[in-house]
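=== Structure Prediction Worksheet ===
Name of assembly: unnamed complex
Input type: mixed (protein and possibly other molecules)
Chain count: two
Listed entries:
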Amino acid sequence: MEDLVLQTVSLLASTVRLAVPLILCALAGLFAERSGVVDIGLEGKMLAGAFAAASVAFWLQSAWAGLAAAMLVSIAFALVHGFACITHRGNQVVAGMALNVLAVGLTAVLAFAWFQEGGKTPALADAARFRPLQLPFVAEISTVPVLGTIYARLLSGHNALVYLTAALVPLVAFVVFRTRFGLRLRAVGENPHAVDTAGISVARLRYQAMLASGALCGIAGAYLSTAQSASFLREMTAGKGFLALAALIFGKWMPIPTLFACLLFAFADALQGRLQGVALPGIGVVPVQAIQALPYLLTILLLAGFVGKAHAPRASGIPYSKEK
Amino acid sequence: MSAGARLPRWVDLGLLPLLNLAAAFLLSGLVVLAIGEDPIKALRILVNGAVGYPEAVAFTLYYTTNFILTGLAVALAFHAGLFNIGGEGQAYVAGLGVGLVCLYLDFLPGFAVVPIAILSAAAFGAAWAAIPGWLEAYRGSHVVITTIMFNFLAAALMTYLITNWLLDPAHGAPETRRFAGHTTLWTMQQMLGWFGIKAPRSPLNAAFFLALAAAAFVWIYVWHTRAGYRLRTVGSSHKAALYAGIDPARTIVVAMAISGALAGLMAVNEIQGAQARLLLSFTGGYGFVGIAVALMGRNHPVGVCLAALLFGALYQGGAELAFEMRNINREMVIVIQGLIILFCGALENMFRPTLARLFARQGAA
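=== Predicted Assembly ===
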């Protein structure tokens, strides 16, 4: 019994750890897409952030300095995105694509030239990383059966960025649905002309959304290279930005459902490692690739309206110009 | 609106793209400078590595073949108003089409099995693209998102099939056995040999001519057939298409299928031409380069061929650059690629208002 609890708790704890970058990126995408900017550049912004965090954390021996650098670099990428598609009304998908490609190239080139370690950054000492934190009274409570295990291993023992993410989800939900900025943000993604008529700048709102998107992707990147791993690795985002985009769609562009979509996808990810080569009763061995493909398959089915229906913000993808 | 200002044709099709390209290269030069190398020297090595000697030219043209095909795939879909980001996955799955034919139908003579493999590649690529096309046309799921998802699905599917079913157990790496000699395409070395010309060994093969033929096909199809007219009409306005009695949904599926078939032919160059075996991740990001190629080539087959040549030279020259300069690695080419997508694609209108003002003043004077 206790063994089963331990296994379940450890599975859920790794789900949480894997979900964090997805949640941060999905929230970033939520700001961008709610404002009417399709953001397939999440992946690139996160990758650039991961590289910046690992480099600066190494130079200054401080994880927090790394986090700040990641957010700044990622915001810079987001502003380029904004400059192309808000100021110059360029194609949003093309701009996002450009950022992704650029991030893959730049991070590899700079890492190679600056650190001479074949495209990765030097390994970080523990002091320069986000390390697991112990919540109070862990030692006392962990002796309690079941609940103690849950407290000690599922709730406690994560790094600061995990708790930060947990706090950010309700905050984003509040900002998007309960504040004036949130109302305007949602309006500008549905009907920018109405917002414009009300005397509010469409461009300004969309730039603000891009700032938020950049900052959140930066945190996600810092998490990958200074919390989950101890260095930046070439293309270490490995499609997580797109998975987050899928989760955002799966969550129908709403914070709380998006959180659950991220947790679901992360759970599938955590499960696949444990299911490798294990025969399930009645099914046999499930190929790893089937579990990897599952989130994308589910998202396609949802987009096709076979399971529920997802409606994107109506004006997303369309550059805004006053005359039309 | 200034972004829509009319410019003389030569400015629109010649000067503006060149300006955008120049901006991309200028920034790339700054990156080279930032990592402490000499950009002029880098450019010289790049050019020499791309076209400086016969073997380099052959490799450049081999890469060009891939980029013509993936570029055409993106360009054709663009004319129907569709952004097909799925070239990578379509080419990957098309590799399966080639592989199955070359592995299991190799009892057929060469003149039968070679065209069947080519058609099979096109068919697999077309099918993999037609599903997102159908989802866009009939279920309203955006093709950009679904083609991204289909890239990941293709990667999972192909990894599963190759590592579990198709790999050659006698071989350590996750790849199939070599195809029988008569099922693969002629190499350029072989073909030039017929005319008594000695050429260096290279992966360049007959698929190069297939790519040129595909470019001619796209030009004829898009601008000189009824189907192409339907495609462009749907691309400019669904309402106008409906009013003219054109079925937009059907046209979208057909456009995506042809686009996927073109991307699929890339697998012919790689799998049937260069590698002679099916292996993991042989697409190597070439599908994504197709986006940059189409943007730079302004979605016209001639432009696509020229842009593909540029990218072919970049890829080949970039390899040489990484070899020659201590501080630069192959990813420098990806930086240039990203900047080209940014300036020729997303920021294509950045210089337009300035140019428009310049030419308006000239026209008035």
